[in-house]
Amino acid sequence: MDGDRHRNEGRWDEAAAAYAAGLKAKPNAFPYWVQYGHALKESGRFEAAEAAYLRAIALRGDEPDVRLQLGHLYKSTGRGDRALLCYAEAVEAGSTDRFALEEVRNARVRVSEPTPLRAFDAATLAILRRLVAASGKAKAGVHSSRAPSFARLILDSVGPATTEPRP
């Protein structure tokens, strides 16, 4: 595919155009969405890259790499909290990426003082609750889950898990 060639040559705008053309022919092609997101991110089109990564997640929510890539996008655009949640989800989904593991491990150290619940929106709390709940449902031997304990730490720092965000 031309998109791969352009990507390998660092020609990100051309790669994005080629992946977009490929997606017209195959709108549910998970790898194209991921590569399209990469090309958009590298060409500085961050909102479009986010949308492409989210579409890839909608197609294959079990794939940890796309969550990792979305985390990288968020981190590079100054959205560290969202990046951290993506890294935690990637680890929960089975990623063994050293960077993601390190980010999750370091976050445990940073979350040491109570954080006002209003700093977390409902979507963030839902993700954290899902990670904690998943810790009891993980299949033995699939992977060593670190994300649920991280999510539990954050939920404990903001208050009861049943509390909703305050305006």
Overview of this protein structure:
There is one protein chain. The chain is mainly alpha-helical and 167 residues long. The chain is built from nine helices and no strands. Residues 111-119, 138-146 and 161-167 have low confidence and may be disordered. Helix 1 runs antiparallel to helix 2 (12-25), helix 2 runs antiparallel to helix 3 (30-42) and helix 4 packs antiparallel against helix 5.
Summarize the structure.
The chain is built from 9 helices and no strands.
Q: SSE order, as H and E?
A: HHHHHHHHH
Strand content: under 5%
Q: What is the overall silhouette?
A: globular
The proportion of residues forming helix, as a percent range, comes to: 55-70%
Given as residue ranges, the uncertain stretches (5+ residues, pLDDT < 50) are 111-119, 138-146, 161-167
Describe the largest sheet.
Answer: none
**Number of β-strand runs:** 0
Q: What is the overall pLDDT average?
A: 76
**Count of helical segments?**
9
- Could you tell me how far the N terminus lies from the C terminus, measured between alpha carbons in angstroms? 49 Å
Structural class: mainly alpha
Query: Rg, please?
Result: 17 Å
Topology:
Elements: H1 2-8, H2 12-25, H3 30-42, H4 46-59, H5 64-76, H6 80-92, H7 98-110, H8 122-135, H9 147-158
Notable traits:
single chain, 167 residues, mainly alpha, 68% helix, globular, disordered C terminus
